[in-house]
Design a protein that fits this description.
Helices cover 40% and strands 32% of the residues. The chain is an alpha+beta fold. It has a 5-stranded mixed barrel. A hairpin with a 3-residue loop joins strand 1 and strand 2 (49-58). Helix 1 (3-24) packs antiparallel against helix 2. The radius of gyration is 21 Å and the shape is elongated. The two termini are 25 Å apart. The model has no long low-confidence stretch (mean pLDDT 85).
Length: 136
């Protein structure tokens, strides 16, 4: 197996799996900053689906922040949400919508499968190239 194919498989597998895992992070209790989002405007983005914009107010106090939030499709709604450091302009509904979970699980599985196949081929090729040990 060529080195570029191995590196490409590893990078692609990690990328796809990482995107899937980030989509599942909102399921983990205790991560992120809890709060509420009050939506002010909603719409449908091409290739994305329904999205709303509004203000996130942390439960522990602090200034409200302008954010977007998925899985909400009505103006002037107040929903429970969390914010994470890697997405400062995006709030995630808690508990996450079914659409977010269903979209993240296949990405995680496909990325993990691609990683497993690439690593398996790499190990197989290394074993084939290794000199035979005496007595085996």
């Amino acid at each position: 197996m060529r080195k570029s194919a191995v590196v490409g498989g590893l990078v692609l597998g990690l990328l796809v799996m990482g995107i899937g895992v980030l989509g599942l992070v909102p399921l983990v209790p205790g991560l992120g900053t809890p709060g509420r989002v009050t939506t002010t405007d909603c719409g449908t983005l091409p290739k994305h689906g329904p999205t709303c914009w509004g203000e996130f107010t942390p439960d522990g106090g602090g200034p409200p922040r302008a954010v977007s939030i998925d899985d909400v499709d009505e103006d002037d709604a107040t929903v429970s949400a969390r914010m994470y450091p890697w997405a400062p302009d995006q709030a995630f509904r808690t508990p996450p919508g079914v659409r977010a979970v269903i979209g993240s699980i296949p990405l995680t599985v496909i990325g993990g499968t691609l990683l497993a196949i690439t690593i398996g081929r790499l190990v197989r090729d290394r074993r084939r190239r290794a000199p035979a040990e005496p007595g085996r």
